[in-house]
Write a sequence for this structure.
């Protein structure tokens, strides 16, 4: 007898009414993984409150533990990180995490012994050679030019001046800066190439290093100088992840509702903060109170022409919003998204068009003309932000099935619970 296998895809919930909810979003991936790394290099134990627990941060923590760092997790969610001598042999699983594959090799040069790096098959397609070559220029011995590769740590790195082409990822620069104070000569990183994407993420790196007492000179554009020295231990709260908050705020925007995210920081280096102004440019309104950031909308969104170079992480959410807007949109400045978890420009074009949309890739972005969309399968390509973009479109288009919603575990394992309870409280 023929058997039909159950469809493992996730039926994205849709709603005709406005979404009205308060959604508490877990900690920032970018802050959590930087805090872990800086704490691992510090001269004493650090306390990190409210860290993100997700695949990317678990991989970072596991890698640091295998290198000799102690990370104790208290039940209320606080991490206590106690540095120790960094040592190999160790094995680092990068998964699909850019922060692990591009931040940890520099730290691994400071370990005594070999450190082997590997990751998901799809991680092998993400740009990485710049990280390895820049470390070689600073004195490291590394075998391999991409995943898998091995850092032959000697417990020290000379450091000094290095020129880097970071036009494909800001993480090439952040990775060198984060460990740079522990290099014998510190590090001077100069960018040579077309514009660096995601600059707020480099500001976040500099900010965190300064919080650890490291001297960083970023007065010259596209040049960073990290003085050699010790890193002080951290005592910090992790902000909510504002890029992960974006699809929830966008849910208010596309349904004519109102969503509040508690704990929205007054001042932040997170690129995701830009979602406020993007939603405002599309016709929604936002205001901040002691309760958090609230986005309210009539449900009618205008098309926009936006350069997302600094905030590329938001592109899948913004593309989904644009597909549901009243007029066409152009998203520019995000050619580097071809090297994210998947080629996000190709994936967004393919998936929105698969539901009847009209999206065209340009050299550095997307041109999106809203069309009436129909039910269908939405493929994620192992990309957490493709999954949440599919959920957002599904809110307004009944019958969208997201093929692998579990990929949201990369940065937000609780996504489906938060999404469905946002809808439950709205009914
Ligand atoms: O340093 C970081 O934490 C990040 C930097 C950015 O990478 P790119 O510069 O490669 O875009 C961003 O997109 C990524 O999600 C996180
Ligand atoms: C690009 C992203 O991640 P990563 O840190 O793996 O580069 C992202 O989260 O959108």
């Amino acid at each position: 007898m023929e058997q039909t296998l159950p469809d493992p895809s996730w039926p994205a919930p849709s709603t005709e009414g406005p979404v009205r909810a308060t959604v508490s979003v877990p900690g920032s991936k970018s802050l959590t993984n930087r805090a872990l790394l800086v704490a691992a290099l510090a001269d004493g134990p650090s306390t990190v409150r409210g860290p993100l627990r997700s695949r990317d941060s678990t991989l970072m923590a596991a890698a640091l533990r295998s290198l000799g760092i102690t990370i104790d997790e208290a039940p209320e969610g606080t991490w206590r990180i106690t540095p120790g001598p960094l040592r190999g042999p160790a094995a680092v699983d990068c998964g699909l995490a850019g922060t692990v594959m591009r931040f940890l090799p520099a730290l691994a040069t400071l370990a005594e012994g070999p450190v082997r790096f590997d990751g998901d098959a799809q991680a092998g397609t993400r740009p990485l050679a710049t990280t390895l070559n820049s470390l070689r220029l600073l004195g490291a011995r590394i075998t391999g030019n991409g995943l898998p590769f091995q850092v032959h740590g000697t417990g020290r790195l000379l450091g000094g001046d290095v020129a880097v082409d970071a036009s494909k990822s800001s993480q090439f620069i952040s990775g060198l800066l984060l460990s740079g104070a522990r290099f014998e000569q510190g590090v001077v990183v100069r960018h040579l190439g077309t514009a660096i994407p995601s600059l707020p993420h480099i500001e976040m790196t500099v900010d965190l290093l300064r919080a650890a007492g490291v001297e960083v000179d970023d007065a010259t554009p596209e040049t960073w100088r990290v003085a050699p020295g010790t890193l002080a231990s951290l005592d910090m709260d992790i902000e909510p992840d504002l890029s992960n908050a974006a699809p929830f705020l966008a849910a208010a925007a596309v349904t004519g509702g109102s969503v509040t995210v508690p704990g929205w920081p007054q001042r932040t280096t997170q690129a995701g903060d830009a979602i406020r102004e993007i939603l405002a440019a599309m016709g929604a309104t936002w205001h901040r109170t002691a309760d958090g950031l609230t986005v309210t909308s009539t449900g009618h969104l205008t098309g926009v022409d936006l350069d997302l170079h600094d905030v590329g992480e938001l592109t899948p959410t913004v593309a989904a919003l644009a597909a549901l807007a009243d007029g066409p949109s152009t998203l520019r400045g995000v050619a580097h998204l071809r090297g994210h978890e998947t080629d996000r420009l190709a994936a967004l074009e393919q998936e929105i068009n698969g539901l009847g949309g009209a999206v065209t890739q340009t050299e550095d972005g997307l041109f999106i003309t809203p069309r009436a969309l129909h039910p269908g399968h939405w493929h994620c390509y192992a990309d957490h932000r493709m999954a949440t973009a599919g959920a957002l479109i599904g809110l307004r288009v009944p019958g969208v099935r997201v093929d692998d919603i579990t990929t949201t575990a990369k940065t937000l394992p609780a996504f489906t619970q938060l999404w469905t309870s946002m809808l439950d409280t709205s009914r």
